[in-house]
């Protein structure tokens, strides 16, 4: 483990790329007239959120002899950044065949297809042997999966002893309000997300066969920042109709979440003993 730490410390930081949008954001872009979301993303990428994610993935402590599993890989952006910055081998999985095709194409185009492979698989039932991976990353993906504990049990199974997990999750921050802010429920419905029980996370990791290494509230430089940026108009880019005023009463708008402090984002780092 000490060797891993030294290797990782000498490397340039890992820069994950946010390339996958939740379904309603994808719809918005398809309907939208401009590069609004591209402009938003560029602005987010230049900002604090990136530095936060650098630190997040450095907790994987991976190097070029390691094999990383990207659980819920989207179209492969964060995984390809890990390969680029660490030299690690990466397998990415997504429930979406389309994403997997795109991710493999992007890996090919980036000249990384020898180190990064993407395939369709369900995180609830991973098609890998026990102890196959040195590290598992799961950015904004467990939030969509039907049973966190089942996914974490699978993660523990496919990690080698000493292997690391880094994931992000969403949760309701204290003090919890009753009733819950309606925008949180709207967000969850629109993006097919469920909230984690932050108080029970450590016990859940334990039951799954993992041990906590770090639990951090990263709301301010991730979720809140994203909502703030997406809610603001971007100069020189038109806002797609679906992100602005709409007649659909239940369609989430990023401004719905401004000031909703109790909607939190959690960074979890764990290890398989
Ligand atoms: C919001 S995207 C995040 C993508 C990527 N991690 C990122 O940060 O850009 C959520 C991802 O989780 C995947 N996903 C959702 N449920 C899944 C499941 N049961 N098994 C595997 N992947 C799943 C989706 O297909 C998608 O790739």
What would you note in describing this structure?
The protein has 273 residues and is of the alpha/beta class. The chain has one domain: Vaccinia Virus protein VP39 (Rossmann fold), CATH 3.40.50. Helix content is 37%, strand content 19%. The chain is built from ten helices and seven strands. Helix 7 (148-158) crosses helix 9. The longest helix is centred in the middle third of the chain and has 13 residues, at 97-109. It is globular and about 50 Å long. The structure holds S-adenosylmethionine. Residues 18-20, 22, 72-74, 77-78, 93-96, 99, 122-124, 139-141, 144-145 line the site of S-adenosylmethionine.
Number of domains: 1
| Percent range of helical residues | 25-40%
**How many E strands?**
7
* CATH domain fold name: Rossmann fold
Number of DSSP helices?
Answer: 10
> What is the topology, as strand order, of the major beta sheet?
3-2-1-4-5-7-6
- Order of helical and strand elements: HHHHEHEHEEHEHHEHE
């Amino acid at each position: 483990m000490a060797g891993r730490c030294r290797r990782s410390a000498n490397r340039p930081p890992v820069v994950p790329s946010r390339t996958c949008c939740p379904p309603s954001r994808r719809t918005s872009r398809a309907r939208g007239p401009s590069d609004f979301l591209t402009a938003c993303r560029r602005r987010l990428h230049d900002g604090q959120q990136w530095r936060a994610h650098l630190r997040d993935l450095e907790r994987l402590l991976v190097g070029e002899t390691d094999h990383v599993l990207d659980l819920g890989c989207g179209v492969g952006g964060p995984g390809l950044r890990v390969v680029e910055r660490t030299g690690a081998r990466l397998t990415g999985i997504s429930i979406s065949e389309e994403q997997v095709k795109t991710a493999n194409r992007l890996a090919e185009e980036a000249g990384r297809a020898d180190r990064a492979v993407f395939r369709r698989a369900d995180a609830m039932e991973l098609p890998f042997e026990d102890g196959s991976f040195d590290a598992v990353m799961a950015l904004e993906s467990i939030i969509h999966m039907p049973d966190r504990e089942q996914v974490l049990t699978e993660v523990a199974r496919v990690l080698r002893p000493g292997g690391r997990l880094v994931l992000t999750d969403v949760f309701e921050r204290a003090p919890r309000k009753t009733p819950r802010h309606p925008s949180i429920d709207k967000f969850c419905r629109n993006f097919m997300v469920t909230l984690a029980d932050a108080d029970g996370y450590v016990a859940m990791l334990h039951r799954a066969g993992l041990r906590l290494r770090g639990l951090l509230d990263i709301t301010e430089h991730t979720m809140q920042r994203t909502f703030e940026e997406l809610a603001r108009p971007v100069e020189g880019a038109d806002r797609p109709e679906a992100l602005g005023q709409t007649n659909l009463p239940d369609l989430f708008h990023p401004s719905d979440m401004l000031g909703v402090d109790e909607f939190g984002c959690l960074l979890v780092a764990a290890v398989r003993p």
